[in-house]
Design goal:
The chain is α/β, with parallel strands linked by helices and 390 residues long. It contains 13 helices and 13 strands. It binds pyridoxal-5'-phosphate (PLP).
Length: 390
């Protein structure tokens, strides 16, 4: 049985061109980028060329790109780095994040709260979008950072980052202390414009394994003039902001993945067509609903809720049939708490347990979509027959 993968927001396969770029850095040119000999110099050259490729992608300078071990580390560095820097001035600096951030932003924010930070949450509409005007109301004298994700990982909604950037830019002109703006652009990188000058962000996060690149590599863009304190110590790499031997194959792979995004924009149209075809078919299932706005959404994301059918059970039965998807709830983490994202957009608790996230990628086909459309209605119908809540 050929397995079908519909979980590209969790991770993507590595593009073969990315793998071919990485391979020599494991087998042949395996030098440490910090070494002086020719092995090291070859590795260093690859790191610096990759930095330039990523900088071109974001329309910024190479010196503004810092390689990390992934987006989780980059998000921790963005929030923690600003917090540490401003602590000299503010005992209780104020940070604003959206209510639907990924745990890699929610987690550090909760930790910084323990260390004295004040945290405010920017609400989202029932379509899953933040309202920039609402942000203005949350700003305080001691606000130091706003972090709003570019694209939500569960419902795929695209947030108005450039508008928020503009608002903060105008506010900053009238303030003594700058409010920094961070966006987690992990889920946006395949589909959205990441020009940091247009977005007017100071900090931006990327991850390799969501863009057909390797796992364990990420990027933090830090705009020139942003003073960010290091959270780790013991090395000179990445100008001391992220010390530790650089992951040369990972860095070269991430850069190749970025190059492929720029070359293959036509994939997005194909993915969107397949996504819309699937949504149409899935919503024929009685008592189903799409979560999150359809128009302001990346082409790859479907998040649906089925009344009286448990997401985990659907996932398991689809897996047995050879189709990989994800639930829209947080049950996979062992908790029975519903997804914080679905809760934030007003999906009732009992409904959000019946949610499924289907995320498409560039290698998916119509034949695969048809198989899902054939199997899913039957699974839901069978589960409903067994459900005590009919
Ligand atoms: C929006 C978002 N941010 C951050 C991350 C964490 O990325 P990484 O696995 O590179 O740490 C993910 C991964 O699921 C994500 O979807």
């Amino acid at each position: 049985m050929r397995k079908i993968y519909f979980d590209h927001s969790a991770t993507t396969p590595v593009d073969n061109r990315v793998w071919l770029k990485m391979k020599p850095f494991y087998l042949k040119n395996y030098g440490n980028a910090g070494s002086i000999h020719s092995f090291g110099q070859q590795a260093l050259k690859a790191v610096e060329e990759s930095r330039k490729t990523v900088a071109d992608f974001l329309n910024c300078f190479g010196e503004e790109i810092y390689f990390t071990s992934g987006a989780t580390e980059a998000n921790n560095l963005a929030l923690g780095g600003v917090f540490r820097t401003v602590q000299k001035k503010w005992r209780n600096p104020h940070i604003i994040i959206s209510k639907i951030e990924h745990p890699s932003v929610l987690g550090p924010a909760a930790e910084l709260k323990k260390q004295g930070a004040q945290i405010s949450f920017l609400e989202v509409t029932n379509k899953g979008l933040v309202r920039p005007e609402e942000l203005k109301k949350l700003i305080r004298k001691n606000t130091v950072l706003v972090s709003v994700m570019y694209v939500n990982n569960e419902i795929g909604t695209i947030q108005p980052i450039a508008r928020i950037g503009k608002i903060l830019g105008q506010l900053n002109k009238k303030r003594d202390d700058k409010i920094y703006f961070h966006t987690d652009a992990v889920q946006a990188a395949n589909y959205c414009d990441l020009d940091v000058n247009k977005l007017k962000v100071d900090l931006l996060t990327l991850s390799g394994h969501k863009i057909y690149g390797p796992k364990g590599i990420g990027v933090l863009y830090v705009k020139k003039g942003t003073v960010l304190a290091a959270l780790e110590f013991g090395g000179h790499q990445e100008r001391g902001l992220r010390p530790g031997t650089q992951n040369v194959p990972g860095i070269a792979g991430l850069a190749e993945a970025v190059r492929q995004i720029r070359k293959n924009k036509k994939n997005n149209r194909k993915i969107k067509q397949l996504r819309d075809y699937l949504i149409k078919g899935i919503l024929k299932i009685p008592q189903s609903q799409l979560n999150g706005d359809l128009a302001a959404r990346i082409p790859s994301n479907i998040n649906v809720t089925f009344k009286n059918a448990e997401g985990e059970s659907i996932l398991m039965l689809l897996d047995i049939a050879g189709i990989a998807v994800s639930t829209g709830s947080a049950c996979s983490s062992g908790s029975l708490e519903p997804s914080h994202v679905l809760t934030a957009i007003g999906v009732p608790k009992e409904m959000s347990h019946g949610s499924l996230r289907i995320t498409l990628g560039k290698y998916n086909t119509k034949k695969e979509a048809d198989k899902l459309l054939l199997i899913l209605p039957e699974i839901i119908s069978n589960l409903r027959k067994m459900s005590p809540y009919k």
